[in-house]
Amino acid sequence: MKKVLVLVLMVLVFSLVFATEYFVDPKNEYIYVVLDGFEAIYEESDGTLSLFHEQLNIVINIMKLSEPVQGLELSMITEEVAKNLDQSGFQTVSTNERNFLNYNAKAFECVAVEDNVAVRVEFTIFEVPRRGFYLIIVAAPDETYNEFRTLLLNAKQMLMFIE
């Protein structure tokens, strides 16, 4: 329990120290705190927010998959994502159901190899009640992915929905 508390405090301090700007999407659905070293680009045509860290070769994308639809469930979307991942050449390393920002989520951690370069990609799908389904994609070089795990967790956790 003590280790968890220390980890949570470290994440909070790290987030506050390295947060450099706040991004609010034009639809007023979410606020994203952009950490130091990341460049944010918002694509209005599809509502995608992309974050890049050039020195670390880290890319984070957040996008809305679907508006809330009666009968559509997280499990239905994650099944489709899993099928598409298998067909597109990603090797799934692990699949986790988790709580992401107090929302039910499912994450697929995958590896893709192209031209002898391995990239670790994590797909996190979650549902925000009355907002819809969202996808966060995190990509980093496979050999450094574990070193940046805390940074990536912080970057993903800085998303806040305007309720």
Describe the structure.
This protein is of the alpha+beta class. Helices cover 27% and strands 48% of the residues. The protein is built from 4 helices and 10 strands; from the N terminus they run H-E-E-E-E-E-H-E-E-E-E-H-H-E. The strands form 2 sheets. It has a 7-stranded antiparallel beta sheet with strand order 3-4-5-9-8-7-6, with helices on both faces. A 3-stranded antiparallel beta sheet has the order 1-2-10. Strand 6 (91-100) and strand 7 form a beta hairpin. Helix 1 (2-18) packs across helix 4 (149-157). The longest helix is centred in the N-terminal third of the chain and has 17 residues, at 2-18. Mean pLDDT is 78; it is low at 4-18.
